[in-house]
Design a protein that fits this description.
By secondary structure, this protein is an alpha/beta fold. The chain contains eleven helices and 16 strands. The protein is globular, with a radius of gyration of 19 Å. About 45% of the residues are buried.
């Protein structure tokens, strides 16, 4: 089979190649899946550099998540050949076939295809865990979503709006403002640079934001500490901006807000029942048409490098999907 393999870590994808591999062998408790679509996530790029918190031993097949059809499974797994499924196991998705534990798969929602389903799990699972499970989002609240042109950010904008919140979406790229306005239904789209707290205060009538969703970090995080309402939450999703920010504890003390780290995958592993409930909630919203992943482009597996490079250049609005 063909697969995108990381043979060595490098800053420029020079250690990554499309390779012929033997078919993966399934063990008890695992499911063999014919991959029909896989979506690219920012951690996929970071893992090629060794910059993500999860550091698989090289060589490894890249690809966090995918959607496809079951080829082989244990009878007691609940899956049978031909079932349409989605999920992932941190690696292995950018290949024609993948083997993953049965617990890492879910039945595809009805009514949406493989590309949209492949783009659903990580982004919307993160958004739901952060905003609903941890943030306890309520209708009418103000939510500030940074990095809103990325898959994780765009999912948060859409989910917050569906749940009745007022949303301010930000991007670090002036060139992406109009594209982002066309891709989401945020109440406003602003550029997150400099002292954007004044813009946020004006839009919210001075109340600031109940939740700040930050996958960017760095200077954006620093200024976000000035944008959280008293009693609000600053949700730390990641550090796509490159710098891991610090916060003086007197700031959340005086302003009465919480800084909360969100690791959606780890949350689901530590609390399996809650993780299952989150997956089911996201799948139901998608099947009902309430959530629709925005796909920037769909590329064949042979053009995997184009997908990675577009993400590295921050050209993508939404998700890139790769079809083996």
């Amino acid at each position: 089979m063909k697969a995108v393999v990381v043979d060595r870590l490098s800053p420029d994808l020079s250690g990554v190649a499309l390779t012929d591999l033997p078919m993966p062998e399934r063990r008890s408790g695992e499911v063999l899946v014919r991959v029909r679509a896989a979506s690219l996530n920012f951690p996929d790029l970071l893992m090629t550099r060794g910059e993500y918190q999860f550091k698989p031993e090289v060589p490894f097949v890249a690809g966090l998540e995918f959607a496809g059809e079951v080829v082989e499974a244990d009878a007691e797994s609940g899956f049978a050949p031909g079932d349409k499924v989605y999920g992932g196991n941190k690696t292995g998705g950018f290949a024609e076939y993948a083997v993953v534990p049965a617990r890492a798969l879910s039945v595809m929602p009805h009514g949406i295809g493989f590309p949209a389903t492949a783009a659903l799990g990580a982004a919307y699972g993160t958004a739901y865990t952060a905003l609903v499970e941890i943030g306890q989002l309520q209708a009418g609240q103000w939510v500030l979503v940074h990095g809103a042109s990325g898959g994780v950010g765009l999912a948060a904008v859409e989910l917050a709006k569906r749940l009745g919140a007022h949303v301010i979406a930000t991007t670090g790229s002036p060139a992406k403002v109009e594209a982002l306005r066309g891709a989401c239904a945020a109440d406003a789209v602003i550029i997150a640079e400099g002292r954007f707290r004044e813009v946020v205060a004006e839009m919210t009538g001075g109340t600031l934001c109940d939740l700040v969703y930050d996958p960017v970090g760095g200077d954006v995080f620093d200024e976000s500490t000035r944008c959280v309402a008293f009693g609000g939450k600053l949700l730390v999703i990641g550090f796509a901006g490159g710098r891991i920010a610090d916060v003086s504890t007197n700031i959340p003390l005086i302003k009465g807000f919480s800084v909360v780290g969100v690791r959606a995958g780890e949350y689901a592993r530590r609390f399996p029942a809650r993780g299952k409930a989150i997956r089911e909630a996201v799948a139901t919203l998608a099947a009902d048409g309430a959530l629709t992943p925005h796909i920037d482009r769909v590329l064949p597996l042979a053009r995997w490098r184009e997908a990675y490079e577009a993400m590295a250049r921050r050209e993508v609005v939404g998700k890139v999907v790769i079809e083996p």
